Amino acid sequence: MKFDRLRQDMVEKQIEARGIRDANVLAAMRKVPRHLFVSEALMDQAYNDFPLPIGEQQTISQPYIVAEMTQALQLGPDDRVLEIGTGSGYQAAILAQIAFRVYTIERIYSLYTKARKLFDQLGYHNIVTRYSDGTTGWKDESPFDAIIVTAGAPEIPQVLVNQLAVGGRLVIPVGNQYVQELIQLVRDENGVRQINLGGCRFVKLVGEYGWSES
User: Fold this and answer.
1) Is the pTM of this model over 0.85?
2) Catalytic-role residue among 61, 88, 142, 212
3) Could you give all domains of the chain from N- to C-terminal order, each with its CATH number?
4) Per residue in 129-138, pLDDT tens?
């Protein structure tokens, strides 16, 4: 099938070739049908090396950045993961291939309902969805082993750090509304430490602990 071949090429040429080594991440990227997470008109572009629009001024991230962020979460099979910004649902589907359970929050209702429907159609029964302001996290289900934020924040929301388990990892783009640095934060018994993974560009994180709507 054409899309199967395109997906294998994507992993080999865009992801493995650029240094992603986590076998679980590579296996997930080879399996999840990325073309189903974009509109029919964009399916032929789904495996190319760039982000694509998904409506509501939002995007599905470039395949490499999805792989890089997922690898930085250092996921294991028993981990519970919180995702801020469901969007198309593709990132959550990748996480669901690796982790025990994925909790994902979306603030735009049309994207939330579309992603939930697709998760059900594809059998991702370990993804729990919520329509809410993701910047406040999901306190009732915390602590999480990993948290991923798929939009650019002006700073790291402390409320999310507080919802990390000891040993937990947070991956988040931080910067201005146009360009950010991808930050990996690890919480341990002594506090938190941060690693800068390099430049990136995301839509802005809107919410109580992010940017304002305007």
Assistant:
1) yes
2) 61
3) 2-200 (3.40.50.150)
4) 999 999 999 9
